[in-house]
Amino acid sequence: MENKTACAEILNRPELKKVRFKDGFLDWLDQNGFFIKPASISHHGMEPGDLWKHSLQVADSLVTLTNRNQLKWQRPGSPWVVGLFHDLCKMDNYTMEIDDPGHELFGGDVVGRTYSFGYNKELLMDGHGDKSVMMLAPWVDLTEEEVAAIRWHMGAFDEKTNWNYYGKAVERWPNVLWTHTADMIAARLIGV
Q: Hey, which residues does 116 pair with through a beta bridge?
């Protein structure tokens, strides 16, 4: 609940006034594990809640990079939108098992409980950046730049066959590269 409240406060920031999330968005995030799932189950951020922590760190890094480098976005709230929601696919990609079957998993507390993560074998779609865009799009009208930044946030960690598309996206929207940089800062330097 604490993370959901923090997210609600961020979405009420002045620079996000022009970004209109549909009613129920925060509840949807909560019900799908955004605040409790890991950022990864084999790399950075493998603990409960690390998806939220990673996303928040990416957003913070992207806002810092934007301010320090005087980056221009199509709308002022984009660094928050892109940073916070670039990895929504991970809500669906990972499953979480907890030792107390009667415990409500999402929106609940995992402290003192045994849990394990796995890959969701019931996925309806694969993908990473593109899947995150598809999951976010019903909840908010995204700018072209936000779509590109979320889609290509993996940079050269995407499939090699996509590198040319990534390069073209960076040429058209330089903030795509800054988004990838913010993601690397969070995952590789800070470790979440």
A: 97
